[in-house]
Specification:
heterodimer, A: about 450 residues, alpha/beta, D-Maltodextrin-Binding Protein, domain 2, 2 domains, 4-stranded mixed beta sheet, two-stranded antiparallel sheet, B: about 300 residues, Rossmann fold, Alpha-Beta Plaits, 6-stranded mixed beta sheet, 4-stranded antiparallel beta sheet
Chain lengths: ~450, ~300
Amino acid sequence: MNKTGLIIQREYMTRVKKRSFIIMTILGPILMAAVFIIPMILAVNSEETSKVAVVDETGIYKDRFKDTDKLTFTILTAPIEEVKESYVADGYDDLLYIPRTEVAIPKNAIIYAKDQVSVTTKSYIRGVMKEEVMEQFLLLEGIDPDIYDKVRKEASIDLSSFIIDEDGEETKSYAEVSMAVGYVGGLLIYMFIFIYGSMVMRGVIEEKTNRIVEIIISSVKPFQLMMGKIIGIAMVGLTQFLLWVVLTMGIVGVFNAAFADKMLDKNIPEVTQASTDMIPQQATAQLAQADPDLEEVTGEGFLEVLDMVKSINIPVMLISFLIYFLGGYLLYASMFAAIGGAVDNETDTQQFMMPITVPIILALVMMPSVIENPSGPLAMWLSMIPFTSPISMMMRIPFGVPVMQIIASMLILVATFVGMTWAAGKIYRTGILMYGKKVTYKELWKWLRYKG
Amino acid sequence: MEFFKAENVSKQYQNHLALDKVSISLPKQSIYGLLGPNGAGKTTFIRIINQITAPDTGEIWFDGEKLNPKHISRIGYLPEERGLYKKMKVGEQAMYLAQLKGIPRTLAAKKLKDWFEKFDIIDWWGKKVEELSKGMAQKVQFIVTILHKPDLLIFDEPFSGFDPINVNLLKEEILNLRNNGSTVIFSTHNMASVEEVCDHIALINKSKKILEGNMKQIKMDNRTNTYRFALRNLSQQPKELLPADISLLSEEVEDDSTSFTVRLPLSGNPNELTSMLMKHGELTMMEEVLPTMNEIFIRKVTEMNQ
């Protein structure tokens, strides 16, 4: 095996075998899976029903509140002051009070509760009341609610957006999906650069303070040692990332399988729908009864999600992710390595961290602006400048970027990281043998120009 | 026959000249002491030989060829500032460093085990480096330096941190290596060990070489006409007997025996003094006292610095 290979192997093996790496690799997916699983468990296990006492002074709503799986309604006729005193003692969780008003159609209501009222309860009540209020208004205006319903259904606009590329090919676009994918990609690259870049720096400082560096560079060139370390750590990062993806998918998959039956038993609609969609289930059921077509909507929704996923060009995303992932990491890691070589200990790194952190933080801060106008000049320039392009371009790609721009940005990135690695190698080579000297930027500039 | 030669090697750092036209030549199978005060330029010179840095001017020859990267595998270097990866296991680490020197894995394992046995540290193979004492870590570094049987060995302060028993062990190994064909550069401030092991020396001060040659020859060249005598039943005190141009350096009396050291003027002949002394007592010992390397070192460096 050649010497750089040996160095890569050592850098990789010592880190992968570390307890902290193993713990992080296991904990990461558990945390990520928890994001998916906890709502699932909550949805299945929240069997408690809330008992709601209703004091309706208007008398309009008394037949409107139908019991659901989670909510039971009891209409009370006692005056509100009395009920307010006693509803907790009577075993109710919440008290809904609809006061009498002077206007024909009462729109105000108050919920009293022991503690925070759940969002589902609130949105169910709001939904029911809104239906009723609307009906009242329609009647007041002399419009048949059935006609209104029909009109509303007919008038729903399906606005889809398509992207037409140079070949005239049309693909349906989903801005929300692109946004999510862009954010995730950009943030992952940011994380990877920082976590593993500073790992390179610490590794260099460790070798320097251990005084092993001179033993090693009597066998290999300093540049080989630096590149071996950078590549070895890149592989550690890729390993961890891959394991996270695989383990997260595995854990979520297992839970999905285990809970699927249970969820069917409970007749709970899609978990995601339950947590995001606040439409009361009963209302949906009523609507479904009124319109048999509606049952197919969920089916269509599923197809639409599939379509959304398909709208992301997965191979392009993966390949560009990998290129920006590695390009960005290599660019920054060589700078981190140079800093590690220049200082004696970690506390001295602060003064040199600034020029590294500023561009990367800038890319992070600019994320919303890039998302807002992914083909605007700001986004364009940020995705060309190599210090910000890994993050900024990653966010733009899901929205579709001209191929020429991607190629240009990648070429600039590669050229910069080659140049930066060369420069970092020079600083590194001089720095690792320099002890007990307070290094300044002027000093670094001199090191850059040393020959041989 | 010379194995290694440097001609007019200079190295300029930003604010100072680290080496100023230094030329040295190492005979094959010699132990060559590279001496000089701190900051004289020894480490820079050693780094140039290891191709860690390149000289600004000058030529370097290694075994008849111009020094080039191929030679790295034929050089073993034990730097003064040396350490190991603290979190790595001793055996793994030794294997890693041996393979970096180009020894194949299986061979490295076998050779390392042999050396670990020999140096009595085999029990530490699976331990972490941070558990080792300084002396044991030094042994590991020494083994790794010589494992690939280099033709040129460079030891920078090899004995620091060793107890006397291990210093002896190392000295023997260094002599063995020399006898088996290696050429050794030995850089140290410990003049006693220079006297013990070196054949040749070069003295560097303020970036310049100020002395080079065979150690015995250097001592002869720097002799000070100093002699030690021992006489029994000396009739008078030495200082009363000695002529005015001869200085008495030290004197010691034990029972009936008197011993003393004198320095003759540069042109002086010890025979006259000896025959004169023999009239006053029974001569039991007379020898020339050659200067120690320590004395030569201090004298040469102070002379130059004045």
